[in-house]
Write a structure and sequence with these properties.
This protein has 200 residues and is mostly beta strands. It contains three helices and twelve strands. A seven-stranded antiparallel beta sheet has the order 5-6-7-11-10-9-8, sandwiched between helices. Strands 3-4-12 form a three-stranded antiparallel beta sheet. The chain is globular and about 45 Å long.
């Protein structure tokens, strides 16, 4: 089962995975009009905002769903029924939890997850789907770019770079989403957060 939900952000709502597989097949995501489905990638900015500063302090987030991870201190937090989001201007961190019968694999992610992602978000271009070995155990890492939702006032969009990590344990799937304007230098900070994920 794959269900996509909108992130709660101040400027750039996107879509978040809430569930991956279940016995019964796929559930459709939210309807996407033909214009969004055929949308072209907007150009990335030459000097994009969104770099997380090296001085950024990270604090522990303990989820009632049975995991902990580090998140940036001071970012706006929104708790949701399936997880939480942490937003700062054009940058976001979203964690969502769902039930799953089996652990995702590279093959199942390519066959089931990626098509749903491409249909549900804007101008998605997936560049990598691979298994990674993290301190919490094996996970699936999906790297892609996408367009932001249009700004409600200016109608302006930003090209985003995104990473998703799928962690699985004992019938529970946690999706960690990281996004920022394309070209922002957040490699070390994103690695810190994805490596900090631990099951309780």
């Amino acid at each position: 089962m794959i269900v996509f939900r909108q992130k709660v952000t101040r400027f750039l709502p996107a879509l978040s995975l809430a569930a991956y597989l279940a016995a019964g097949g796929l559930l459709p995501g939210p309807a996407v009009g033909p214009a969004a489905a055929a949308e072209k990638a907007v150009p990335a900015e030459k000097n994009p905002p969104g770099d997380i500063p090296d001085s950024q302090v990270f604090i522990d987030y303990a989820s009632p769903e049975g995991f902990t991870m580090k998140v940036p201190e001071g970012w706006a937090r929104s708790d949701r029924a399936d997880g939480a989001s942490f937003i700062d201007k054009l940058d976001g961190v979203v964690v969502s939890v769902a039930k799953a019968d089996t652990a995702p694999t590279v093959e199942s992610a390519k066959a089931d997850y990626v098509p749903k992602l491409e249909a549900s978000e804007r101008a998605v271009r997936v560049t990598a789907v691979k298994q990674v070995n993290l301190p919490a155990g094996p996970a699936i890492r999906i790297v892609y770019t996408s367009n932001s939702e249009p700004n409600a006032v200016t109608n302006r969009q930003v090209r985003l770079e995104d990473e998703r990590y799928l962690y699985f344990k004992n019938g529970k799937l946690v999706t960690l989403e990281l996004y920022a304007p394309k070209g922002a230098d957040n490699v070390d900070q994103w690695q810190l957060m994805s490596n900090s994920f631990h099951w309780k």
